[in-house]
Amino acid sequence: MTRNTLDSAHIHPAALAQIENNHPALVAQVRAAIAAHKVVVVGMGLNPFPAKARKILDAQGTPYTYLSYGNYFSQWRPRLALKLWSGWSTFPMIFVNGTLIGGANDLQRLIASGEFQRLLTA
């Protein structure tokens, strides 16, 4: 299945420049963490689901890197850049071996099915 995104040919160059420069250092930081670690959880404060994901991973004994950006009252624009980059609309964003697997509930389902362990060893 192809990800449904607006083709760059249909974006005015001025708008495209603004899109490309939407917190690139933050996106680069997340990309670097994903490249360097097997499991990365990207979250935010005051949201219970990043905490849920971390508790699930702790219970599994799975090491992970946690990156947190603001909360409901701060840093929403930088978090928006991550949402636009990843295509995932909520937090946490959980990456396993460079692949976005979704959020806390998705993590729980993958563990229950045994697929999470397969992803870890891939």
Automatic annotation (TrEMBL):
UniProt GO molecular function: protein-disulfide reductase activity
InterPro entries hit by this protein: Glutaredoxin, Thioredoxin-like_sf
UniProt keyword list: Disulfide bond, Electron transport, Redox-active center, Transport
Database matches in Gene3D superfamilies: Glutaredoxin
Keyword Electron transport: yes
Keyword Magnesium: no
Pfam family, one: Glutaredoxin
Domain Glutaredoxin: 48-101
Family stated for the protein in its record: Belongs to the glutaredoxin family.
Name of the protein in question: Glutaredoxin
Protein species of origin: Duganella lactea
